[in-house]
Amino acid sequence: MYVVLGANGRAGGETARALIEDGAAVRVVLRRPEQAAPWRARGAEVAIASVDDAEALAMAFAGATGAFLLNPPPVSGDPYARAQQVGTALAAAARRAGLSRAVVLSSIGAQHTTGTGVIATLNRIEALLDGAAPAVIFLRPGYFVESWGEVAGAVVAQGVLPTFIEPGHATPMVSTIDVGRTAAALLRETGTGRRVVELSGPYDWSAADVAAAFADILKRPVTPAFVPPPARAALLAEQGIPVEVADALLGMYAGIADGRVERDAQSEQRRGTVDLKTAIVRLVAP
C-alpha cells in the first residue's frame, strides 16, 4: 500500500495514477470528503487529513509501504512559516506511523537556503524530513511544463506567451507525467538512507521553445513576451495573489535568472521521456 498526498494536484495526481496503472494498492490523502468519489472510482482508498495535522496524517500512513509527501503550493500567508509547520507535521506523522519509505517532492535549486524565493521553502522541508523514515528520497524536478497552463488563455486568445523567464534562457523543465512516473518508481525501489534525485525532461527548454510548441499545436504563430522584473508585482496583484506569496514567487524567478535554480552536481540525475509538445497539448485540449 502506497500513500499519496496532493492527489488532486499536478504531481500528486500523476503519482497516484502511475501507481494505480502499475497495479499497486493506493491510498490518497485528501482535504475534503467530497473530493473522494473520483479516486474511489479508480480503485484507491481515501483518507481525509490536512497536511499540517500530524495525528490525522499518522493514521493515513498506517500500514503503508511508502508515501509520497509534499508541501502544497502557497496560496496565502507566509510561505516559509507554512513550510515549517507542514514539514514538522509530516516528519512527526512519518515517525509516529513507522513509515519505512518516503519520496518527498522538492525542486531543483533546493540545495540553497536563500536566493531562490519559494524554492527555499523546500530546502526547509528537506531539512525537516531528513531521517523521518529509514529511506527518504528527495525528488527535485525542474520547472513544471504544466505551469505554463496558467498563461495558456493568453496564448490561445492573443498568440502571446507571457513569461518571467528570458525567452532564450534554457532551464530544466519537466512534465508532471514524468514526475509522477519517477515518484512511483522510487517508491517501489528498495534500499535505505537519504537520496536526492533531480529530474529534468529529455532536454532543457526555454520560453521560446514553449512558445514554438504552442504554435505547432495551435497551427499559428505564438510570440514569447518577456515581462521585466519591475512590472511583475503589479501583474501578480491583478491576479489576486497575496503579497507574501507573490514575493516568494518573484524570488524564484530572480533565482532562475541569477543561476541559483540549478542542478546540484552531488545529486543523482535523471531525465524523463515526455517531450515538450506532448506535455503542452494537454494545456490547450478542449
Description:
The protein has one domain: 3-Layer(aba) Sandwich (Rossmann fold), CATH 3.40.50. The strands form three sheets. An eight-stranded parallel beta sheet has the order 3-2-1-4-5-6-10-12, sandwiched between helices. A two-stranded parallel ribbon has the order 7-9. Strands 8-11 form a two-stranded parallel sheet. It has helices at 10-21, 37-41, 54-61, 79-97, 120-129, 152-158, 176-188, 207-218, 229-238, 243-258, 276-284; strands at residues 2-5, 26-30, 45-48, 66-69, 101-105, 135-141, 143-144, 160-163, 173-174, 193-200, 223-226, 268-271. It has 286 residues and is of the alpha/beta class. Strand 4, helix 4 and strand 5 form a beta-alpha-beta unit. The longest helix has 19 residues, at 79-97. It has eleven helices and twelve strands. The two termini are 35 Å apart.
